[in-house]
Design goal:
The chain is built from five helices and no strands. It is about 70% helix and about 0% strand. By secondary structure, the chain is an all-alpha fold.
């Protein structure tokens, strides 16, 4: 069970972590954390989909307007929710 990722998702959804900090934390955990090696393939796939969104997070609207692949806060929150749902469905 990806406890670190679920804890990060919970923190951003509850508002105790900013979207920027969440995105940085997810990126760091995915690239350098130990938990990734313990994940089942469906868990890895769900987190990778979220990772692919958060790495393009930009808090700057003008930057997002110039670079269409950049994502906003709503995109990140939606990706986090979808990841959480996938992970919780995998546990059942």
């Amino acid at each position: 069970m990806p406890k670190t990722f679920l804890n990060l998702i919970e923190a951003v959804q509850q508002g105790s972590m900013s979207v920027g900090d969440f995105s940085s934390s997810v990126e760091h955990e995915w690239n350098f954390g130990d938990e990734r090696a313990t994940l089942a393939e469906p868990e890895k796939a769900a987190i990778k989909r979220m990772f692919d969104v958060v790495v393009y997070y930009s808090p700057y609207p003008d930057e997002r307007a110039r670079i269409p692949s950049y994502r906003d806060e709503n995109d990140v929150l939606q990706a986090a929710q979808q990841c959480r749902q996938s992970l919780e469905a995998h546990v059942r």
